Amino acid sequence: MIYASFRERRNLPGSVVQLTFDADVEAFRAEFVAFLGAHLPSDAETSERPRSSSHIPEWARRWQRQLFDNGWLLPGNPPKFGGRNATLLQQYVYLEELGRRRIYQSFNPQGVGIIAASLLSFGTPEQQRRWAVPILRAEITASLGMSEPGAGSDLASLKTRAVLDGDHFVVNGQKVWTSGAHDADVLLAFVRTDPNAPKHKGISVLLIPTDTPGVVRRPFASMCDGDEVDFNEVFFTDARVPAENLVGGLNDGWRVATGSLGHERVMLWMGYVDLLREMTIDFSPSGALQRDGYATLVMDAYALRLLGSAALARAARGDEDVPAQSVLKLLGSEALQRAGEDALHAAGPDGLAARAVTAPFAALNLDSHYRGWFDRYARSFAATIAGGTSEIQRNIIAERVLGLPRN
Asked: What is the CATH number of domain 267-401?
């Protein structure tokens, strides 16, 4: 494997690339591995499975609190927010060890990775105490209310209105594709507070408890499994939300939005590396054509790890390279989709079986990661949409990496 700690040893002739981590990073890894060995839940504890991306079974809540209390939930955070002020390279080996064991960081991924992170960046101390810490400790769960029927990738076109009325905002409108909303305790919702401003400038962000009168959540199934319900439509009808639930400044929601998606993207490529690595283990090719596809999968996995490691090394030196995240996201998501399609074709009619099992069960992983090949392939389309569609990533690469004109 190719690792990210590159430096020149100037006391040696020429330039020598270091392909290992420094002692402090390896010590950090060893401490985390020891923690996992001592504290992972037993298989007997994990029989209840999460039913949506905002539903955390009780055993998983206990596990997440244990991670938080010991500084292993989000190691880059300060201790009071579930971390230990880890460096970027320490966070890398942390995620690497989770991936090797097929451990999903939290069964409320948007709550922990986007919503709580956004509150730590933009929220008030009271919002952090009341909402962020309980989300991180799995005492409550949260969902992200961004997309609308007419505002998917183009978030700035959202129409859900929030009008200030005394010490409350009155919210009316609709969200869709809101993952896990029917199980969530609170939504981080993007709303329009100034309809006369340019569309990027009239947006604000509210924390809306899901038990607020006037909030209706309607879950619906996806194409993957009719019995699995995660997506929601969410309707707001004169829902009164305390003004103190405003996150960031009034009409400053675009800054929060770009920050929210930034939290999602920084280490997103490592998730694709893990999924591609799992594919290399779970998919067994036969015949020249399938072996060719498998070789492409392996090369894509190594290429993504190489490019991601180089980007991480730059970030560790303090060099900001935002467009590189678009390259990594595009490569990872489309490689995963291509590999899923190859595996589905290789499986033949058996690949369409709804209840098939294609990988070993891992109690701390999502159940969808070992289901049938059609299920795994169908879910890959979410990877090319969430966090910025492939089309958006190509535009960013064209304009900001290649320097091509807009027209």
From this structure: 1.20.140.10
